[in-house]
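Chain A, query sequence.
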Amino acid sequence: MPVTTGGSRWKLRAPAPDRRGALADALRVSPITAQLLINRGLVEAGAAGRFLEASFEQLHQPELLPDMDRAVERLLAAVSGRRRVLVYGDADADGLAATAIMARLLSMLGCPVETFIPCRLADGYGLSPETVERIVAARPDLVVTVDCGITSRSEVATLRAAGIGVVVTDHHQPRGGDLPEADAVVAPRRPGSAYPFPDICGAAVAFKLAWGLAQALSPGRRVSPECREFLNDATALVALGTVADVCPLLDENRVMVRYGLKAMTASRHAGLASLVAASRRRYNASRRALTSRDVAWGLAPAVNSAGRLGRPEVALQLLMATDPAVAERLAAELSALNEQRRALGRAVADEAMAAADELGDAPVIVLCSDTWHGGVVGLAAAKLAERFGRPAAVVTFDGQYGRGSARGPKGSRLHELFAACAEHLEDHGGHDGAAGFSVRRDRFEAFRTAFLKVAGERLSAAVPADDALEIDAEVPAAELSCELADEVCRLAPFGEANPEPVLATLGARIAGTPQAIGSGRTASLRIRAGQGGGSVRAVGFGWAQHLAELAELGRAGRLDLAYTLKLDERSGEPEMILEAYRART
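Chain A, predicted structure.
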């Protein structure tokens, strides 16, 4: 039984005909769309309607974040007094987007602003004693951290002792219950926070601070037209950070990414426009509206590549660029870095995979090398975690000092695991599914032993992945209309915690002869499939090798098709994007 992706079994979600009928009537959508909403836990008409609407009014107000009033007051004083502000970010896409949001707004308000992005290969993550020493020597009046700082108690204390104000904005977990003694710590995950949705990225926290500052500078709660235009454009950077950090596309994240994708597609900002254009050229994409997949697979890796290879300033300069010629040059440089990153990442991942095959069934994978490039060990860790279904930590040593990255599947609790092994580490930070850390060579074996022990105690044994393909709903071909495709589109943006629905048409017939599209290993195929008289176009990207088999199945009788449903932008017709097929039994 041939299946191209998704394993050998299909698992159809149990339909809820009574509930979906009522929900469909209440929302004036098709029963299929109602079923997709129910599959997402959206049973009540009010909650489901808000999900479909995803309006700006659903964003949580900035003042709900802890210390927002203190941070705004500190920034207002800096703006009015024309004080020198240093925005200190991080080298990944989220940190760079957050830095660009804060620096661009302060610059627009006439504040003297500088930026500092630590090089992960030399400086590590976040504030460090070495970077703090350089900041003290530069003597800014105020440091605003974005996407970092919540674990930097001693570094913040050093800055304040030198007479430098500090506002921390971060979305990471604090270490224990202790916070840095900054002028303000704006962080949704800090102890005692009542923020309604803590799963926002660093760029979103920076956006909320920018919004709060814009409100304080405007009469009433309505921001000025200039600030409103800035904030609308800045949602593009929030979308970049949210998708790059694999934040759940629920609640206000979904709202910000939905509007951010529109802003990114139509942005007049030279840097963003050049970044999007370069990605379209790389993937030979049309000028259609951008999707979260475009960001996850095109824009975010390109921006991340600069930091991974020790050149984060290239990406930041691009996100800050206003001159089209400069932006075009930087976009080309970033594209070249991305190609270099891809080649290095493949080489390191291949070596790590071979080494991991020898480790057996330990609860976590821990590997090290003196030759792996430090900028791509996170990519190797991600591939290991995906393949083996358990957390992986990969370290590269330079002399006596090693830097590492860890990745894990859902439920890995990496932040908790590293906290339990902190005595063996120089530093660490991150999320439940992704973390960075540093370790001395003479402490590595002690760390490995402790990490394996803690993981064995706190994580359940690795369970073989269920290879079943989850089908959200069965849809007769006659119901594959433009209206249904448009309604499915309203569930977007798709990504973490909001996957694109997979539909199935069972007992379909292929109309005509399957056709190849393109050539080479990436060639695709096109068919028309349906039941009864009508048929719908279907595309299998990279499926040309299945052309003969599908043609044979079509001649032999009926088959089952699993697919996602889109509205083709050129023809205006519904289109299946094939995920799997099987002979009808």
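Residues 1-7 have pLDDT under 50 and may be disordered. The chain has three domains: 62-334, 359-458, 468-583.
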